[in-house]
Write a structure and sequence with these properties.
Blueprint (H helix, E strand, L loop, with lengths): L18 H12 L10 H4 L1 H10 L6 E5 L8 E7 L2 E7 L5 E5 L14 E3 L3 E2 L6 E2 L5 E3 L17 E7 L2 E5 L8 H12 L7 E11 L3 H8 L31 H21 L6 E3 L7 E6 L30 E6 L3 E5 L4 E10 L2 E11 L10 H26 L14 H18 L1
Antiparallel strand pairs: 1-10, 2-3, 2-5, 3-4, 4-9, 6-7, 7-8, 9-10, 11-17, 12-13, 13-14, 14-15, 15-16, 16-17
Helix pairs in contact: 1-8, 5-7, 5-8
């Protein structure tokens, strides 16, 4: 990861933020033109990126992984964003320990693998050894005097599991409304029983673009003509209304409405929630969730809409359940289907670089080559991710141009506006 200077100034802001720079940032935030993209520095300025890492990724709940990635006690993943590196470890109580991956001796990374299984945590530099809770239990060398090991535990962060999804927060006092956000999404996700899934595949893509451009791109389907594989199963009218449907999509809109009515009938029959809940910028733990129809057979992300795994997830009664789609601020989105689940997380690296991690989950008893074909399972979103990478990088190149000027969001891009509005609110709260 690219080094980032978050050493605080006297006022507690990242180095590089003089009073003049802070005043300039406050003015940019306070005068932000509603319905338009951000000014270029928000996408390009390393100092503003540092502030993002402090104000957004250093204070709010961030999606880290699913329980399927750390299914047993001692299993861990390391999660890196900006200057931070965290160990997310499945503990003996069924929860997670979240530890800063920084040895208390001389700061070396304690665990260097992206995932694995461990008992105690041993730093590879001088073998300082920590318990799964982060307590220092071994640090000795010939001739050394004893010292108080209790003063040198790994620093901890907050972690919680909600409906099989793992979230972390670096703030001393995390935002308290995430509990209410979890109460919204748990009834939608719980029937898929993520704790009974396994990882079929994980893809890491580094996009040469600011993390906000990654999230903006995800929050609209205005560009979905550029996703031919996705268009086979995802209606390109997503985000549109009767008033905004262009003539060439009227037939598709009608088919979409009919498929949605059929899906809602089945959801009512099975007692599954499907209604749209949209609070992307009206709460700190911003969320949008719904269950939406898919084209074709309506089962999965395939060319004909048919299932890609023979195994139903959890206690779901039917493959024809479209997709449960969830967006969470600031860094994640999800698609939950009858046959598999896809999680997406954006982890900022620098002002112009972001890691996008996509993970495909299937039933834990599904057998590759028997119940699912891995290439078929992952094809649509592998291609879509590469296409989105190209779109984001075009926008980053444009934002770096001296001739960049803020442009208006279209009506179908209202979720982009909501994301930016959420971001601006959080930044205002931080800079005062």
């Amino acid at each position: 990861m690219t080094a980032t200077n978050l050493a605080p100034t006297k006022k507690g802001f990242p180095a590089g933020f003089t009073e003049e720079k802070l005043d300039e940032t406050r003015i940019r935030l306070d005068t932000r033109r509603a319905g338009f993209s951000l000014e270029a520095p928000f996408y390009t300025d390393p100092n503003l990126f540092n502030l993002d890492m402090q104000a957004i990724f250093g204070r709010h709940w961030v999606f880290a992984c699913s329980v399927a990635e750390i299914p047993e006690p001692g299993d861990y993943v390391t999660v890196d964003y900006g200057p931070y590196s965290l160990i997310v470890l499945h503990n003996d109580d069924g929860g997670v320990n979240v530890l800063h991956n920084v040895c208390r001796h001389r700061g070396a990374r304690v665990l260097t693998d992206p995932q694995g299984t461990t008992g105690n945590l041993v730093c590879g530099y001088h073998s300082w050894t920590y318990s799964p809770e982060g307590d220092l239990i071994h640090a000795s060398a010939p001739g050394e005097m004893t010292f108080d090991k209790s003063c040198y535990a790994l620093k901890r962060a907050h972690g919680k599991i909600a409906a099989g999804l793992v979230f972390i927060c670096l703030a001393e006092e995390p935002p308290t409304d995430f509990h209410e956000t979890a109460k919204i999404f748990e009834p939608y996700i719980a029937p898929h029983e993520l704790e009974k899934t396994k990882v079929a595949f994980q893809q890491n893509i580094v996009e040469e673009g600011n993390w906000k451009l990654v999230m903006e791109n995800n929050r609209e389907c205005y560009h979905c003509d550029g996703h031919p594989e996705l268009a086979c199963s995802l209606f390109p009218t997503w985000g549109l209304t009767d008033e905004t449907i262009p003539p060439h999509l009227e037939d598709v809109w009608g088919r979409n409405q009919q498929a949605q009515a059929s899906l809602e009938y089945r959801c009512r029959r099975y007692g599954l929630p499907y209604e749209v809940v949209e609070e992307l910028d009206t709460r700190v733990g911003g969320i949008r969730i719904s269950r939406e129809s898919l084209d074709g057979a309506g089962e999965s992300f395939s060319a004909d809409g048919r299932r890609l795994s023979k195994k139903l997830l959890g206690d779901l009664p039917d493959f024809r359940l479209g997709r449960c789609s969830m967006h969470l601020q600031p860094n994640s989105w999800f698609h939950l289907l009858g046959d598999h689940v896809i999680t997406f997380a954006a982890f900022p690296i620098s002002a112009s670089k972001t890691l996008v991690r996509t993970t495909w989950l299937v039933a834990d008893d599904a057998v590759e080559g028997v119940d699912y074909d891995l290439e078929a399972l992952t094809h649509t979103w592998k291609q879509t991710n590469l296409q989105d990478k190209a779109f984001v990088e075009l926008c980053q190149q444009g934002a770096a141009s001296p001739f960049y000027e803020q442009g208006p969001y279209m009506k179908s891009e209202y979720q982009v506006e909501a994301f930016i509005n959420w971001y601006v609110q959080r930044m205002r709260e931080h800079v005062g």
